[in-house]
Amino acid sequence: MLLQSPILLHLYPNLLEIEWHEGYCTLSLPYLGYFPLYIMQLLEKYSEEVEVLKEEVKDMLVLDHQVGAEKMVLIDALERLGVSYLFQKEIEELLENMFPKFEEYSRVFHDNLFMVSLHFRVFRQHGYDLSSGN
Predict the structure, then answer these.
(1) CA geometry: angle 43, 89, 83, nearest 5 deg
(2) Lowest-confidence range among 11-15, 51-55, 123-127?
(3) From CA 71, how far away is CA 61, in angstroms rounded?
(4) What whole-number distance in Å separates Cα of residue 15 and Cα of residue 9?
(5) Which in 44, 84, 89, 100 has the greatest CB count within 10 A?
(6) What is the arithmetic mean of pLDDT over 17-31?
(7) In three state form, how does the secondary structure of the chain look?
């Protein structure tokens, strides 16, 4: 099966091949020469950028310059993007610290249905026992 890379598709549509196995895949570069070196440099550059961005997100989760509501929106965004597994430890610690203060948060934005429901949903998804009643 060929990887259809949007960046390289118009120039080199058959550059990379992916072989799918049960639960994982292998990537092979059938062409030798300039292209694998270019691709490896590109992957290295992107992986360095990803590491920098991961550290920025960890700082956003750990540092206290944001209020609880902003952090809860960040957690929700990370989960919706499918990258929350990269920050699981930080998210669990944050929720553990935020859960005892949930009643205080719910009083602050009692008229903001979005924030109350977001807190409720995220806490419930992470196994915290919240009553849907008063």
Answers:
(1) 40
(2) 11-15
(3) 7
(4) 9
(5) 84
(6) 61
(7) CECCCCCCCCCCCCCCEEEECCCCEEEECCCCCHHHHHHHHHHHHHHHHHHHHHHHHHHHHHCCCCCHHHHHHHHHHHHHHCCHHHHHHHHHHHHHHHHHHHHHHHHHCCCCHHHHHHHHHHHHHCCCCCCCCC
**Two tokens at 13?**
């549509």
* C-alpha span between 35 and 5 (Å, rounded): 14
How many angstroms separate the first and last alpha carbons of the chain?
A: 55
Tokens 């799918």: give the residue: 20
- 10: tokens are 């118009």
pLDDT at 44 over 70: yes
